[in-house]
């Protein structure tokens, strides 16, 4: 039997952003629900390794850090595409965010004086990345999950949101597929937060969890909300060769060296000043270039050498990296280098949202990796993503609380209608027998296309072919045969719902990348190798309609840091 649940606010996504927002709403005395495809502790936030940036100033020998220095590094790292007022919000709130998480129970690593330890990360002028060994996201997520449970927040696990309900120009709820029962459920709410994470699984090589399929981005597109800066996709320099499991930037922050097959420390050629601690886009391109010109090892990888750190240091601050290397590559980093290659890692682009996390649709908010509040611009610095989840999760919760206070939750006939139509759609998927296309085949073709045409290096001809291929796959996806009629735990249905999100999200990336005729941050055009501030010091906005994707631009909000060439 289909149900409609009613809450003051609802959060779609059970990772760090969603949990922090839900805690804030609950603290305001309002009812809030968290809807998640998986158990919250299985959210992709748990895999974040390196740390969380904040200008605590605990490393005095490196100089006096400040939020302004943090903001400058963020803006410079973004290749000046970040909105500087948004970067200021992030960096000013950072110290309080770290201390709040510590007071709630996160066990950060400590320095010799007992203070929160801070390590250097790429593109940072000071060692400001606070960490819990190399399992920082794991620690933060468990802390916030405990805080949410403590406050009695209601969880709907293994629920996949399928459509936002818009009524009188505002978001008043959504529908979700209950994997356990096989039924659709409705959620009536005065404020809804999209906190669904990234879309990395549209790529063949990605560090992302399998659940990261762009669901929140698709929900926003369906509701007429723009996606911003989707062409900017971060490729992490060091993922484990073959599996693409993340090998944290912390490994380089602790002194790890990148070596090619000639045993050369090649980063000296690409970033002579900071070498391995250049921003991620620069290091990823350097590794890929070494591989492309024949300086990589057979199969396509380079070495990350940690042996000089010694066993005690590796086991103290990089125990997770040690375990991953042994278990998945058969390499003990105490004794031998780790084979690494670049892989998709993070989504700078996402649902267009303001500094208070509000979107253009009243009642709808977005935060975390699925959103684009424009703090990362064309390239995110390591350590700023965990920070973003906590800072803007709290801000989103505050904004939603202000929006819903005093608003009555009234029944919606339209939501009931949407619930019935979505139920019929799911039933039709389960009973599909006429289609001759397989979901997995289309998904694999999409991932290969995205890696080949919209990967680390891009050029017009390849991208045009890639966009044509994406649109062809969209047509083929209409004929997908599910092949599983079970109502309970029908993973085939989830797979098709995810594919229906991945295809338009991929098209949005492609449309933005083709139109941006410059190289900036992670977007590297071999046919337009220079940055073009005259034409493209601007954010791209992609919207969807019956006529397809449309593209427009809005100016970057500059400020105290003059736009200039980025050099390291």
Kindly describe this structure.
With 568 residues, this protein is α/β, with parallel strands linked by helices. Among the domains are: 241-343, Succinate dehydrogenase/fumarate reductase flavoprotein, catalytic domain (Flavocytochrome C3, Chain A, domain 1), CATH 3.90.700.10; 420-534, Up-down Bundle (Methane Monooxygenase Hydroxylase, Chain G, domain 1), CATH 1.20.58. It has helices at residues 16-27, 67-77, 84-104, 136-150, 215-222, 250-253, 267-270, 280-292, 311-317, 319-329, 384-404, 413-430, 439-453, 460-477, 491-515, 533-536; strands spanning 3-12, 32-36, 52-53, 118-119, 129-130, 154-157, 159-167, 170-178, 184-194, 227-228, 233-240, 257-259, 302-305, 338-347, 350-352, 364-366, 371-372, 457-458, 524-525, 538-545, 548-555. Strands 1, 2, 6, 7, 8, 9 and 16 form a seven-stranded mixed β-sheet that branches. Strands 17-15-10-20-21 form a five-stranded mixed β-sheet. A four-stranded antiparallel β-sheet has the order 11-14-13-12. Strand 20 (538-545) and strand 21 form a beta hairpin. Helix 1 (16-27) packs parallel to helix 4 (136-150). The mean pLDDT is 95.
Please provide a brief summary of the model.
The protein has about 575 residues and is α/β, with parallel strands linked by helices. The chain is built from 16 helices and 21 strands.
What topology does this entry show?
Blueprint: E1 3-12, H1 16-27, E2 32-36, E3 52-53, H2 67-77, H3 84-104, E4 118-119, E5 129-130, H4 136-150, E6 154-157, E7 159-167, E8 170-178, E9 184-194, H5 215-222, E10 227-228, E11 233-240, H6 250-253, E12 257-259, H7 267-270, H8 280-292, E13 302-305, H9 311-317, H10 319-329, E14 338-347, E15 350-352, E16 364-366, E17 371-372, H11 384-404, H12 413-430, H13 439-453, E18 457-458, H14 460-477, H15 491-515, E19 524-525, H16 533-536, E20 538-545, E21 548-555
Parallel strand pairs: 1-2, 1-9, 2-6, 9-16, 15-17, 18-19
Antiparallel strand pairs: 3-5, 4-5, 7-8, 8-9, 10-15, 10-20, 11-14, 12-13, 13-14, 20-21
């Amino acid at each position: 039997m289909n149900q409609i649940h009613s809450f003051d606010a609802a959060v779609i996504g059970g990772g760090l952003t969603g949990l922090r927002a839900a805690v804030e709403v609950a603290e305001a005395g309002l009812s809030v629900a968290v809807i998640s495809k998986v158990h919250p502790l299985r959210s992709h936030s748990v895999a974040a390794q390196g740390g969380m940036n904040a200008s605590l100033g605990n490393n005095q020998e490196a100089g006096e850090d400040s939020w302004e220095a943090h903001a400058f590094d963020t803006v410079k790292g973004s290749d000046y595409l970040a909105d500087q007022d948004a970067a200021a919000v992030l960096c000013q709130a950072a110290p309080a965010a770290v201390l709040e998480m510590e007071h709630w129970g996160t066990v950060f690593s400590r320095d010799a004086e007992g203070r929160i330890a801070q390590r250097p990360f790429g593109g940072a002028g000071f060692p400001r990345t606070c960490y819990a060994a190399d399992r920082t996201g794991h620690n933060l997520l468990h802390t916030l999950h405990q805080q949410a449970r403590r406050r009695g927040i209601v969880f709907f696990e293994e629920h996949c949101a399928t459509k936002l309900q818009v009524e009188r120009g505002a978001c008043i709820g959504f529908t979700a597929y209950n994997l356990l029962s096989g039924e659709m459920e409705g959620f009536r709410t005065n404020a809804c937060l999209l906190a669904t994470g990234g879309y990395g699984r549209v790529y063949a090589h990605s560090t992302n969890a399998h659940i990261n399929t762009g669901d929140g981005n698709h929900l926003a597109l369906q509701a007429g909300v723009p996606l911003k800066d989707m062409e900017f996709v971060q490729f992490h320099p060091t993922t484990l060769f073959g599996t693409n499991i993340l090998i944290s930037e912390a490994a380089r922050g602790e002194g790890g060296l990148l070596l090619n097959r000639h045993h050369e420390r090649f980063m000296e050629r690409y970033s002579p000043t900071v070498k391995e601690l250049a921003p991620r886009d620069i290091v990823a391109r350097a590794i890929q270039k070494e591989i492309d010109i024949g300086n990589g090892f057979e199969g396509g990888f380079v070495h990350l050498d940690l042996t000089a750190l010694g066993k005690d240091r590796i086991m103290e601050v990089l125990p997770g990296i040690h375990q991953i290397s042994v278990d998945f590559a058969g390499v003990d980093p105490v004794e031998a280098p780790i084979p690494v290659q670049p892989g998709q890692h993070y989504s700078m682009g996402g649902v267009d949202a303001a500094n208070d996390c509000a979107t253009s649709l009243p009642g709808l908010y977005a935060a975390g990796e699925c959103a684009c509040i424009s703090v990362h611009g064309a390239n995110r610095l390591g350590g700023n993503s965990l920070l973003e989840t906590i800072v803007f999760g709290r801000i989103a919760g505050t904004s939603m609380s202000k929006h819903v206070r005093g608003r009555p939750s009234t029944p919606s006939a339209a939501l009931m209608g949407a619930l019935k139509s979505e139920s019929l759609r799911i039933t039709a998927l389960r009973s599909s027998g006429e289609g001759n296309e397989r979901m997995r085949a289309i998904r694999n073709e999409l991932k290969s296309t995205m890696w080949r045409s919209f990967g680390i290096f891009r050029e017009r001809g390849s991208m045009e072919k890639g966009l044509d291929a994406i649109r062809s796959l969209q047509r083929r996806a209409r004929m997908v045969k599910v092949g599983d009629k079970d109502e309970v735990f029908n993973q085939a249905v989830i797979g098709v719902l995810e594919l229906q999100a991945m295809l338009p999200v991929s098209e949005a990336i492609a449309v933005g990348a083709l139109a941006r005729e410059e190289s900036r941050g992670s977007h590297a055009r071999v046919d337009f190798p220079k940055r073009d501030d005259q034409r493209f010091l601007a954010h791209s906005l992609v919207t969807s309609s019956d006529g397809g994707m449309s593209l427009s631009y809005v100016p970057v909000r500059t400020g105290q840091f003059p736009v200039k060439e980025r050099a390291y």
